[in-house]
Amino acid sequence: MSLLDLITGSAGNQVAEQAENKFGISKNQIIALLVVAAPLVISYLKKKSESPEEADKLNATLDKHHDGSILNNPAQALERESEGNSILDHIFGGNKANVENQLSANTGISMDKIGPVLATLAPVIMGYIGQQKQANNVNSGGGLGDLLGGILGGSAQEAQASNNPLSDILGSVIGGATQSSGGGLGDIIGNVLGGGNQQQQSQQGGLGGLLGSIFGK
To answer: Pfam families this protein is in (predicted)?
Structure first.
């Protein structure tokens, strides 16, 4: 399963429908959030996994809590919001408020709901990473950086080849994330939501314009 499959397939659509009913936010906005948040989370984890200690912690967490079974029952996501919040606290740390601010601005989801919705999506994203870990037989923290980089690289190639309008967003987000490879974690959010493919985004008015052109924000 590719990242685009996660977002546009059964798991992404089911969790978006469940969250739509719970939070009163349109399914399209939730999918827009997922298409930005999934590669953003993976990029942060890839950067963090450059530390052997962090890589080992992530490997253990995936083995213990994220085997991918949530993808077969995405309704679990609504029951795991508190866990998702803890996941985001660990991944984004002091950047979490800025991440939520930027995602709210780009997806049109209000600030009082962006945190809970993002926390609902987090276990699904982690479940996807765990499923990919198993599928690629990655059994140690040392291989996680390559796995996460491979997910982003493969998704970028698929986005270029696909006619799905969501691919434009996914490709733009991944482009921004990979540009920050030489910087710190704080650079990733700026490049993803403020940069990315500059030529493409300048034509669309930034990522917010790209999302708006597709979902009518």
So the answer is: DUF937 (PF06078)
Q: Where are the domains of the chain?
A: 3-175
Rounded to two decimals, what is the model's pTM? 0.83
| d(C-alpha 86, C-alpha 120), whole Å | 11
Cβ pair 78, 92 in contact under 8 A: no
User: Closest by alpha carbon to 33, among 118, 91, 97, 96?
Assistant: 118
